[in-house]
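Hey, resending since the last one bounced:
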Amino acid sequence: MDIIFLREVRADTIIGVYEWERKAPQTIEIDLEIGIPSEAPCHSDNIGDTIHYGVVVERLRKALAEQHFLLLEALAEYIAKVIREDFGAPWARVSVTKLGILPGVKRVGVLIERGHRPR
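The structure tokens again:
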């Protein structure tokens, strides 16, 4: 399987269990690995045969600006669902990170995989 990857995508969303976390949007960082449904784009060189990563980023930033989450796990699940259902990816790995949310901790995050990754 061919994979598109995006690293350190920044987006703003309301997230957190604590009330003080939900007073204003936080910038989160997202790493994505997205399985491409076929090898067609490797041969056709046509953007229509693949998942357009620019559209993925635009869609996620817009959706996250409008959504509220309590848990990183729920946020990661939402992202994986969008990638698989809206973009037709058979497999996705999603890492979501909060930056500097705890004293002395640079990053806190979660990593999930959804779908089937053929071997």
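The radius of gyration is 15 Å.

Sorry for the duplicate.
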